[in-house]
Amino acid sequence: MQKLALSCRLVGLAGLLMMVSPTAGAADPAERVSLELELGAAQLQKNELQSPNDASATRFDLARVLGTDSTQGTGRVTVRIPAAGGDEWLAVYAPLTFEGSATLDQTVVYEGRTFAGAPETRASYRFDTYRLTWRRAVIQSAETTVRLGVTGLVRDAAISLSQAGVSASRSNTGLVPLLHGSLERRLGSRISLIGDVDALGSGQGYAVDLSLRAQYVLDTRWAVSAGYRMLDGGADNDTLYNFARIEWLTLGVRRSF
Length: 257
What we know:
CATH class: Mainly Beta
Helix content: under 10%
Order of helices and strands: HEEHEEEEEEEEEEEE
Strand order of the largest sheet: 1-3-4-8-9-10-11-12-13-14
Distance between the termini: 34 Å
CATH topology: Lipocalin
Largest sheet: 10 strands, antiparallel, barrel
Shape: elongated
Radius of gyration: 20 Å
CATH architecture: Beta Barrel
């Protein structure tokens, strides 16, 4: 059901993107509001988990529990709003959910519940994020633009395990401040290479959201892109040990207004 709901939301947003009528005026796309839809098949490379983070719980890799279901479709929507003086605002909605089942290769104790190795175990990993970024152009020329800024990320995350007669779940919602940087290198009037990153680290963990993509401008309103995205990070504190890495190839379409 979560996969179906995600698909419906993204299809609806894609439809909105396609149906919006052109506005008057042919300003530079870089100076107009834009809406971008990005889709991809995300692969959970690892998700090492121990909760609580002490001897009473087992440290295990959730990606192995998901098995072949560790690759699932995902997407994100980005609204870009230019401001005066080379400033920009980005608003991002990025839902991400993995669900699957497998047989555990060991007995696992998670959130005080014991999961035996023999029965089939179902796992769910959700990491939805909502982001607001402010960034400013610090280098801007005909070929190159470098922007630096800050991102406020709200995460809505949950990890669940269940098997016959036993289930356990841990959820977490919180605000994470990140540093932001982006680089755009224009190779001509239509083709650009774009890299952007939100990242920050501390003694108890780190977070990285990295994207590298090539963009092709179709006309003054439409552009398409293809590239690579990686999410990497986690936390090691008194109550939780959890480090995950997710990678995927992306396809995107952008509409300027």
